[in-house]
Amino acid sequence: MKDVRFLDFIQEGIQQVEQRILSQSDGHYPEIKFALEHILSSGGKRVRPAIVLLVGGLLGGGHADLVTLGASVELLHTATLVHDDLIDGALLRRGNSTLNASWTPAATVLTGDYFFSRSASLGAELDDPVIVRHFADTLATIVSGEIAQLFSRNTILDRETYNKRIFEKTASLFQLAAKGAALLSQGDEEVVAYASDYGYQLGMAFQIVDDILDFTGEQAKVGKPVASDLRQGIITLPVIYYQELHPGDDSVERVLEGEAEEGQLDALIGDIQASKAVELSYQEAEGYVKRALEALANLPQNTDDQSWMALKELAEFVVFRKN
Amino acid sequence: MKDVRFLDFIQEGIQQVEQRILSQSDGHYPEIKFALEHILSSGGKRVRPAIVLLVGGLLGGGHADLVTLGASVELLHTATLVHDDLIDGALLRRGNSTLNASWTPAATVLTGDYFFSRSASLGAELDDPVIVRHFADTLATIVSGEIAQLFSRNTILDRETYNKRIFEKTASLFQLAAKGAALLSQGDEEVVAYASDYGYQLGMAFQIVDDILDFTGEQAKVGKPVASDLRQGIITLPVIYYQELHPGDDSVERVLEGEAEEGQLDALIGDIQASKAVELSYQEAEGYVKRALEALANLPQNTDDQSWMALKELAEFVVFRKN
Question: Is the pTM of this model over 0.95?
Answer without folding.
Answer: no
